[in-house]
Every structure is written in C-alpha cells, then in structure tokens.
Amino acid sequence: MVVGTTFGAHYARALAGPYSPVELVGVAGTGGQAGRHLAAELGVRYLAGTDEIESAGAGLAVVAVRSAIVGGQGDEICRDLLGRGIPVLQELPVHSADVVRSARAAQRSGAAFAVTGFYEHLEPVRRFIAAARALDAVSPVTGVELRTSIQVLHASLGVLSRILTAPPGPDFAVHPAAATAKSLVSTDWGGVAVDVLVRNGYDARTPDDDCQPLMGFVLGTPDGELSLAHVHGPTRWEPRLHEEAPGRLRHPEQRLSHLFGPDHWTGDTVFPGLWAEGIARAVGGFAEAVSAGRRPLGQRDLAALRHWEAVSARLGRPADVPSVPPKLINIHDLEVCS
C-alpha cells in the first residue's frame, strides 16, 4: 500500500510495474481526484484515508506524505499504522525526534520501521557509493566537496553517510557564498574535511520544481578524485598527475579520466526506468528485512538527520527565488571549439 499521491505517485507506479518486488494492493489519499485517478490508472483499490488498510490486505505501507517538519501529517500516519502492526517505510525528510518516536512505536507493536531518502537507491548513486568505499580502502578519502539544494540536503547527507562511515562532527562553519542564495558549510566528518555548497532558495509556489544543483560529489584522495556530477549520470575517476622528472609522468600508461556507468537517461525514460528500479530496490530491501525480522533503521540514518537539522537551522529561512521554465539547450550548439 502506498500512502500519498504526490511524490507517492512515483512509488505507486513503480510498485505496479515490472520491477516491483511486491504486489501493490492499493493507494491511500485524502479523497482527492488525483489519488482516485492514480488508482484507476494502476487498476488498484483507492482508500480515502488509512482506516481500511488492513482490510485491503496490505503487508506493508510506504508513507510518502509530508512529515511534521515540513508541515504535513506523515509522522502521525506512520505511528497510527505502526500501532496497528503494519510495517512502514517512510519517505524523508523527517525530523530525527519523529524518527525516534516512530521507531519506539514500531518496537511496541513489533512492526518494522525504516526511512528512505530515495536517491541512495538509484543505480548511479549506488555505483558511486561502492566505488567510493573501494577507493577509500586503498587511498583514504581526505576531503569531500558536495553541491546540493536545500530541498534535498537531507538526502545528500544521507548518501555521504554511506561513504564516510564515521558520524559527522558537532562543529561546523557556515559562510555566505558569492552566488545568490548560496552558502558554504564546512565540517569535520570523522576526520574528513567536508565542504557543502548549498543553494538555500526556491520558489515558494513550487518548492520542488527547482533543485539545481540536485546533488554532486567530489571525493579527494592522495591519488586522485572520484566524482559524481549528477544522480542520473556516471561516476568519474581522475588520477592525480605526478611528474617523476620534467615531462615524465609516474604512470604514463593510465587513462587520465575514466567513466563508470551509462549516461543515457532522458526526461521521459528516467521515471519509469531508473527511478522505478530504485524504488523497487528500496521497497524490496525493506520487505526482505520485514520477512527476516530485522530492524532496518540504523544509527547512521539518525546521525545524518541530526546533522541536517543543525545545518538547516544555521542556514536559516530559504530565500524566495522565482522559478521560470528552463529553455531546451541543443547540445550541438555547445560544440563550438575550433
């Protein structure tokens, strides 16, 4: 069962599709037409509210409703479902205090509870995390540069917490950047210097419309840099150039830039393809944990959320930045080198 029909529509369509590890039995909303149309499109039952979820035969629920920290009822819905013994996977952002409350409700009822930032389950991000861990084992990461927007800062830090296994330190500095509505956040994350450039502004009328940049990472090591420019793109490894003598490189045979993974997603293929696979992976992993009796919520999730809360409080209220539809740029117009 998917609760919520805004971002929840992505979950519902993915779980009704060919990649789904579970059977979607229904969609729950507030009674609006959008939710009813979504359920009709997918051929599943529509529930106006969550009172009848048990009768719909749901073995677990995905709650993609705004949480209390962004003015929604998602946390209350989660604890109500957990109190009835229904396992819940909740879409972030969620305040860490509410995560703890829901985890305690889950413990009392014996139902599983977990949160998801979504992006950590996308294949390009998983590829980057795996490459970063492998790199760190042979060439320790000494610094991180992260570019992101305030709307997905929580998810960006969640991805970073899967690479830097130590928790972030309690102290950090915030400085205004030269660009409009941007700030630089610098911290020591378990001995690794982390600099986060955050775009702290959006159009209040359409807050989810303009997440530019979404999230991009550069990991520095003594031997080179590993980067992910975008969550839908490839990982890049760039070894550090070193001259043993003038004009003679230490490793002259190595490629100076190496890409891992495809870079072919378009606006009309990413949702039913890459995103649907990521959602299936997130829900499938949660369903496996439920079946095995494991508790999938970890301290890493809480540590990243608490750091996000502290940073967000220091950044202050996001600036109101009017959003305009982007122009379509012909890639061939950029190939002008002569």
TrEMBL record:
GO molecular function: nucleotide binding
Pfam family, one: GFO_IDH_MocA
Tree of life domain: Bacteria
Residue ranges constituting the Gfo/Idh/MocA-like oxidoreductase N-terminal domain according to the UniProt record: 2-115
Coiled-coil annotated residue ranges, if any: none
Name used for this protein in its record: Gfo/Idh/MocA-like oxidoreductase N-terminal domain-containing protein
Species, as recorded: Streptomyces natalensis ATCC 27448
Taxonomic lineage: Bacteria, Bacillati, Actinomycetota, Actinomycetes, Kitasatosporales
